[in-house]
Specification:
InterPro entries: Anthracycline_SecMetBiosynth (IPR052164), Glyas_Bleomycin-R_OHBP_Dase (IPR029068), Glyoxalase_6 (IPR041581), VOC_core (IPR037523). By secondary structure, the protein is α+β, with helices and mostly antiparallel strands. Helices cover 18% and strands 40% of the residues. It has helices at 14-17, 33-44, 93-102, 161-172, 223-232; strands at residues 23-30, 47-50, 58-63, 66-73, 84-89, 106-113, 118-124, 130-136, 151-158, 175-177, 186-191, 194-201, 213-219, 236-244, 247-253, 259-264.
């Protein structure tokens, strides 16, 4: 990963979360919402309340009453990968969705209104990675970050970073930090000089069963202890905990196979 904790800052400052291009929300569509709520409730301490119903039954996960993420039910006839999806902020989701199309991406759902929460669309970039666009109301979006159980970073895992980075830069106006030609194929996307997301090119190491996809990192107090809880709750450890310059990180999957990362930031 690159610079975790840079996407919104402590307590999810509203101006940061709603800045165009900044990740402002994450959601997960699953086949069994009740079991999924039990898993994440036990892992992160989330509580659940009703969410927007435009895409079917959904709930909003919260910590101490402050929104963190969304979980919805996949239609029974839709056999789609179960995956966490980041939503990137926009001041005009219709205009951004049109830019996605013009730049070689696909708009799969919307744009449509999500009740009082805002307006959204679900898209894929030219390499096939799925992401959302979110035009939020004044009070919506992830309401808290920087504490255990909240999104800390989002990173795109793809074949190579250069061309797909140009897509996101054109659509969302990011400032790009180019990857080091002599080092790993990584790009940091920035808004007003602030890191908001990363792109990592894996080449042939990209899992064939997943293809290009976004990975959400959730903050935890203790990565190793969280891994034990994941396993005990029926999840799977995909990459053991290891230390990085940005904290202690591990990659896991929930019981339905949705992949995500755990990170304990440096102390």
């Amino acid at each position: 990963m690159t610079e975790a904790r840079g996407s919104a800052g402590p307590n999810g400052a509203t101006h940061a979360r709603h800045t165009p291009g900044a990740p402002s929300w994450v959601s997960l569509m699953v086949h069994g919402p009740a079991a999924t709520q039990e898993f994440y409730g036990a892992l992160f301490g989330w509580e659940f309340g009703p969410g927007p119903q435009q895409l079917g039954p959904s709930v909003r996960a919260a910590l101490d009453g402050r929104a963190v993420a969304g979980i919805g039910r996949l239609p029974p006839d839709r056999h789609l990968p179960v995956a966490w999806t980041p939503y990137l902020a926009s001041n005009d989701v219709d205009l951004t969705a049109e830019s996605v199309r013009l730049c070689g991406g696909t708009v799969g759902v919307g744009p449509l209104d999500a009740a009082e929460a805002g307006r959204m669309a679900i898209c894929s970039d030219p390499a096939g990675a799925v992401f959302g666009i979110w035009q939020s109301s004044a009070r919506s979006g992830t309401a808290v970050t920087g504490v255990p159980g909240t999104p800390a970073w989002n990173e795109l895992l793809t074949f190579e970073s250069a061309n797909v980075a140009k897509f996101y830069e054109t659509v969302f106006g990011y400032d790009e930090q180019p990857s080091d030609p002599a080092g790993p194929d990584r790009v940091v996307l920035r808004v007003d000089g602030r890191p908001v997301a990363g792109i990592r090119g894996l080449g042939t190491a990209l899992p064939r069963d997943r293809g290009p996809h976004w990975m959400t990192y959730f903050e935890v107090a203790d990565t190793d202890e969280a891994l034990e809880r994941v396993a005990g709750l029926g999840g799977q450890v995909l990459e053991a905990a290891h230390d990085t310059p940005h904290g202690r990180v591990a990659t896991v999957a929930d019981p339905e196979g949705a992949r995500f990362a755990l990170i304990r930031p440096p102390r």
